[in-house]
Amino acid sequence: MHPSRLELTHRLSEALDVYASSNVSLSAPEVAEEHILLTVHDQDYLDQVKAVSEDPGLQAVDFGLGTEDDPVFAGMYEAAARIVGGSVIAADAIMDQSTVRAVNFAGGMHHAKRNKASGFCIFNDAAAAIHRMLERGAKRVCYIDVDAHHGDGTESIFWDDERVLTISIHESGLSLFPGTGFANEIGGPRAEGSAVNIALPAMTGDAGWMRAFHAVVPQLVRAFDPEIIVSQHGCDAHRDDEMTNLKLSVDAQRQVALDIAQLADDVCDGRWLATGGGGYNVTAVVPRTWTHLTAIAAGKPVPLRTYVPEQFRRYVLETYGRAMPYLMGDDAQLWWRNWEVGYDPADPVDRTIIATRKEVFPLYGLDPWFD
């Protein structure tokens, strides 16, 4: 989660002229005010984050602060609140109709819960952005999380809110943190079907991941009919990321960003807020994936066979001692079986898909076998 992820993404986006368009503007995120944080977090939790931020010698393990995955540091409160500020600025820009698409690749802190830090996440910026949209008049918002880890924090914040559909496609909790996000986790009693989980087996790969996404996500998004899509694009599912086991390519992650953009165009008149998330191969994977995401949101996708600019590759080698790939893609063969070709009970990915479809599709008037 080192800030170099953001610096390198920004630098690569500049090198590829992603920002060089009259329809692209950059906004500096401000530290979110307390009343914004309180829309998705409890006061006692905020007080603890402030305390450890001012005195890193303190710990508040009951609140997830001072643990192995959330060590405390000076300025933690301001740093985490600034990430929220970026996503809320993006939400306001969409609600003001000054833009239809926005990206905060510093965001996507999806493990943060109302009263606890978790999984490197302190404040939940995506949840704060969604709440802001609801507060400003949005009736239905869909949250799509394609990080390798279950988007448990965002899901929990809107667990019983029928206005928000949270969809998380992730590696199964049987093999990966946080150990949750199974098909039968479908939302609270007042909002059954508002939480959707696709818990894929380890080693799924591009074809299975894309099949699962297309067998569940577009159908439910269209049935829910949201006004806005908020998506979390953690790129830690990549095959070169040592934290996870889904074994995806940059090519597949780019394709899903394109697919979500198309869903936003088809269902939400283009309204789409995208965030970053996890991603621990800091030099070779994160900058390429999030530059693709930013370019797609800007309406100028970067072709996969585009060469990574030489000056950028040289900068990464000199600064981080790491060699960059030559291309913006992994030269993967992107192909997946459409759900319409039939269900294979011997395929663990298909068993995952049908489990999710059986739990949720009937709640939206959809046939789990044929829709």
Primary descriptors:
371 residues; six-stranded parallel β-sheet; 6 strands; alpha/beta; 11 helices
Report what the structure shows.
By secondary structure, the protein is an alpha/beta fold. Helix content is 38%, strand content 9%. The protein has 11 helices and 6 strands. A 6-stranded parallel sheet has the order 1-6-5-2-3-4, with helices on both faces. The longest helix is centred in the first third of the chain and has 20 residues, at 76-95. The mean pLDDT is 97.
Short description:
By secondary structure, this protein is α/β, with parallel strands linked by helices.
The assembly state of the depicted protein chains is single chain
Anisotropy-based shape: globular
SSE-based structural type: alpha/beta
Q: Provide the β-strand percentage band.
A: 5-15%
What is the averaged pLDDT score? 97
- The percentage helix is 25-40%
Question: What is the terminal separation in angstroms?
Answer: 39 Å
